[in-house]
Specification:
0% strand, 119 residues, mainly alpha, globular
């Protein structure tokens, strides 16, 4: 498992920080989408992966963006602690979906990837 994580880290870090932020935004968007399904494990896996992606990206970006990412990471870790309860409560799951969507937009803005396509 650790070997696979090291390989994934190496692969992930081979991209520039903007692309990595794009991957984080994409994962957060997937959390929102997958939360509409009954696939709790897929959402948990995305949360775990996103926590790692943030850890591997934050040191290489602007400090103010890094701080925002770390705040997201902390909230994701809090979700993990109470995930079973979040998942069975429709109201809490809805909040999780909304927050994931907001974070996805925020991180996508940080990445600058959207502005590359607007010209």
């Amino acid at each position: 498992m650790k070997q696979n994580l090291n390989e994934e880290k190496t692969r992930f870090q081979s991209d520039n920080p903007s692309k990595r932020l794009g991957y984080i935004a994409e994962n957060l968007s997937r959390v929102r989408t997958f939360s509409h399904t009954v696939d709790k494990e897929a959402v948990e896996s995305l949360v775990d992966e996103t926590i790692c992606f943030i850890e591997w990206t934050a040191p290489e970006i602007k400090p103010e963006y890094a701080e925002e990412l770390v705040n997201i990471q902390v909230e994701l870790a809090r979700w993990k602690l109470k995930f079973d309860n979040l998942w069975i409560d429709d109201s809490e799951r809805q909040k999780m979906e909304e927050q994931s969507s907001a974070w996805s937009e925020q991180v996508l803005d940080m990445s600058g990837l959207q502005s590359q396509f607007i010209a």
